[in-house]
Write a structure and sequence with these properties.
single chain, alpha/beta, Spore Coat Polysaccharide Biosynthesis Protein SpsA, Chain A, nine-stranded mixed beta sheet, 44% helix, 17% strand
């Protein structure tokens, strides 16, 4: 017999997440919406992650545990959980975070209230390793607006907050392609998703993100990110200029624009905005930026383009 399709699929990719995993699973089990399935995808952990996962999977037929023989990299592990999902809606769950009991039901309600929306996300408060509060993260930008260009331009600046751990329509998230093997794949994923439809914000602190890493230098963070993307290629990529890695990301942003339903003028505006942001934020040079910034002076055309970016609002 075919399994009944659940309302929500949850993907929990993990690697050596045993320290907080039980707390995270308990928080999911306490959700007031019980119509969900959970896929725990273990990247060949060496701690007690496997024992904890098998224990919880044995308690509930809603939980399925998959263990890999080798470490596939974090991004491949995230994608596997999305590919394994069968629900109407999908969300990723970090192996160290927590959720208020109404997280799923409130996000589902927001999506059902707006058929055009592709993602719903609540506000986030951060805690430290011991569970003590650190800060509440505000999110003043309205991503529920109909304009895909507006949503795109604001996401260009990396305003992702807790959106990547929101709850979305599974088909739209699958169409966004998951996490590609490039720098900042979560940002690109959200851009692709935002070009499909609006995001609905649940104006309540229902997501609890845990700061579970020790402070890192810029170089340490860079190397960790490369290992997360692809452990086998991390050493080769570590010696490449950062601008080359971000140029790859920029080109995928451009491809997302071309494949979108934006009008010709909106695509042109989005492409120019992308060139400017990648030039200013990641130092990825482009001939267009050089032409418009003649002699280091802001030309009339540049001022207009920066107004499109929201810099002169």
């Amino acid at each position: 017999m075919d399994r009944r399709v659940p309302l929500v699929s949850i993907g929990l990719p993990t690697y050596n997440g045993g320290r907080y995993l039980a707390q995270s699973l308990d928080a999911l089990l306490k959700q007031d919406c019980a119509d969900w399935e959970l896929v725990i995808s273990d990247n060949c952990s060496t701690d007690d992650t496997e024992a904890i996962s098998r224990d919880y999977a044995g308690r509930s037929d809603r939980i399925r545990y998959v263990r890999h023989e080798t470490n596939l990299g974090a991004m491949a592990n995230f994608n596997l959980t999305l590919n394994e999902a069968t629900g109407v809606y999908f969300m990723w769950a970090a192996d160290h975070d927590l959720w208020e009991p109404t997280f799923i039901s409130r996000c589902v309600g927001a999506l059902e209230a707006d058929p055009a929306a592709v993602l719903a996300y609540p506000l986030c408060r951060m805690i430290d390793e011991s569970g003590a509060g650190i800060e509440e993260i505000g999110d003043p930008i309205d991503f529920s607006v109909p304009s895909a260009l507006y949503r795109y331009k604001h996401l260009l600046w990396g305003n992702i907050a807790s959106k990547i751990y929101g709850l979305g329509r599974r088909e739209a998230m699958a169409a966004a392609g998951g996490f590609p093997d490039v720098q900042a794949p979560d940002r690109l994923f959200l851009v692709r998703l935002a070009l499909q439809g609006p995001f609905e914000k649940v104006d309540d602190y229902l997501y609890i993100g845990r700061q579970n890493r020790a402070p890192e230098t810029v170089q340490e963070r860079h190397l960790r990110t490369l290992k997360d993307l692809n452990p086998e290629q991390a050493g080769q990529r570590a010696v490449l200029p950062g601008t080359r890695l971000y140029r790859e990301l920029r080109d995928l942003y451009m491809a997302a624009i071309d494949e979108s339903s934006l009008s010709f003028r909106e695509k042109l505006e989005a492409r120019v905005a992308t060139l400017f942001v990648f030039h200013m934020r990641y130092h990825v040079a482009s001939n267009l930026v050089r032409v418009l910034r003649v002699g280091g002076k802001v030309t009339r055309q540049t001022a207009r383009l920066e107004h499109w970016l929201g810099k002169a609002d």
